[in-house]
């Protein structure tokens, strides 16, 4: 033990940050930072951890945000953080895209989900408890038919940049075919244009999980000769399943979960 | 955005019904929250977004943390947030585990990675720039042979709780077979015990990516009749690949990336 400690001391002295190491090395069998969750950070600390677990899919399927996190989600979505998170992820997508060799035959595509990816339904969710209430299909469909959802700014910028790089846009949404006109109208209103395909759920897709439906549609795209370089979506069910894009980009969404 | 927010406030005051949304929607094509990344939040805002993109794997392969994020990662790791994030994820893992029917034949297993999952190398990384420096295998191996890494508190608690539920523990690490004794000694020092298998990289595994090596080992476990219910790791390469556990749990690690 003493020998080990002196070795550790040598390691400390050799390092450029010995001071901070001294603080953290335990004398006895020990653990790192117990009790952080209850250490006074309260709802903000818990809710930020809950949000991470949602974004990493650790939380698994869930139906409503925790009641104690409503104010947190409000602040996250309407403050700087949601925009910043979206921008950093879009920047990483663009950095990847810039390294792709685009053939120029119209077959190099990027797949985008629609809701909470290209379009933001934040106005609707702000009026409906930020995901703390049970999903109300009737009132959400009323919102969809208004065709007034704004663009997610980082996605609109990425969309335009990808088009400038020569990628073609495929929009793959869980919305139903009956909502095609309203969706197209909303996308144009928000500033999107010139997509190659807008794929909505047809009669035979209704009732399938998003993972199954979207994987099937990606397979059809490959069968049509498209090369799917990137896939951007706010749900893991936009991205998981086979076949996948070369790179998948999970956008933040702490308001709802789709399996 | 400020305009949108004031409209939303009106909306909230007026009614929660979707019909009133008509009044609150922007009149012109609009976007949600432009410019958040440069809106004065500075390094903390950027680094928190960078961290999310790492945890969601949006960042893709990376070698060093951004230089501007060293202080952020220090504070994240040593403050309440790392502990809280780890605890919330461990809680979600336990909630899943409690719903599993354990047969009692010793074949119901949970796979744990070792570094930054069961054991914390935070003392080492605190002395070496929190991942801002190139990885130095020699000095890291010296640290490994000290066998003094503390437990990650949330993982030790989960490990013990899973054993109480009847799960058997399989430890699957990228460490080399030559480090078996030091690793066992460290695990025992940190409070872990009674694992079923500790799997390290053998001669034939050296040079393989972690995804390939760990998937292969999970396949061998299935071939041995084990049922892999859960898999906890701080790298996506601990969790991706086939076969997978029924549920995978990504633990936080903003200090390094392993492909």
From TrEMBL, chains A, B:
Keywords: Glycoprotein, Signal. Residues 1-19 form the signal peptide. The keyword Acetylation does not apply. Pfam families: Acid_phosphat_B (PF03767). CDD domains: HAD_VSP. Belongs to the APS1/VSP family. NCBIfam families: plant-AP. This is Acid phosphatase 1.
